[in-house]
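Dissemination and training. As part of the outreach component of the grant, students in the summer workshop were shown how a complex can be specified as a set of sequence lines and then modelled as a single object. The example used during the hands-on session is reproduced here so that future cohorts can follow it. Participants entered these lines:
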Amino acid sequence: MKLLLIHIVVAGALIYAYFRQPGALIPYTALSTALLFLLLIIFLWVSSKFYNRSYYRKLPKLFYFLLYFLKELFVANLKIAYDIVTPHYRMQPTLLALPLNAKTDLEISLLANIISLTPGTLSIDISEDRSVLYVHTLYVKHGDVEQLKRSIKDGFERRILELTA
Amino acid sequence: MAGTIDWVLVKEIISCVFILTGVIFMLIASIGLLRFPDFYIRMSAITKGATLGLGLILLGMGVYFNQPGVMLKVLAIIGFTSITAPVAAHVIGRTAVQNRISFWPKTNLKEFEDYITKEHLEQPINHDKYTEDIKEDIRMEMGGGDDADNG
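and obtained this result:
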């Protein structure tokens, strides 16, 4: 994933150099710059097939992960918003003990951060042997705690482990 | 009329939609802060609503100005807020648990009892753990100072 940073810097430098020269054909706006940037990143990503296979595999996964996370963020925010503006509470707050497969500091802190950022769930603490993450959550479908745990593990943890592996 | 699209108008409409959605999310999160039943649920509502609202408002601003420099700063702000806001929420929530801020009575604490007994949080003590620690420290320091004077 270090390669992504390098690619971003390279693409940024190329765009800067392009717009510095006087006869640039493309208008200097946010939209055109963003499109050019995406084009360069995709080009560099395709070229990485020949020298860094793991990056070539991981970048689409990162992209899907971001999309999935944004979708979760919106859906959960709308759920909470609905609960706020309607008179009765539909929530049933529960404290989960989520068993962790993530082992390293980076994985655990990423997972805890993303759990906290998704509305309705808040990571409270981690057990001393780093095997259990305690999560405060608002919505449990049909009171089925195990199903919710499975969905968090399948949704966020599996993807994070795939990315950091 | 057909064929000529007023791009300035389109840009303004898009940025208006972003900003209004962000403002509505923030407003709803603030109402939630007032009417939710306990501390943890309130914090759940306010941190996430504010992060999303801020992101949408800034994005709308970036679309409105339509300059690469502004857009870059907007994206940087969104990135850094979404890294730091959950850390703050986590630290506040953990401190609240350790200080025995009570949960909403309907909260299902079944899986949490393990943690509560391990951290010796089961006794219903109302005083603030950290205030007690600080008081203890001050007492120690005072005692040490007295000893030095006596010696």
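The first strand of chain A starts at residue 94 and ends at 99. Students were then asked to discuss how this feature might be tested experimentally.
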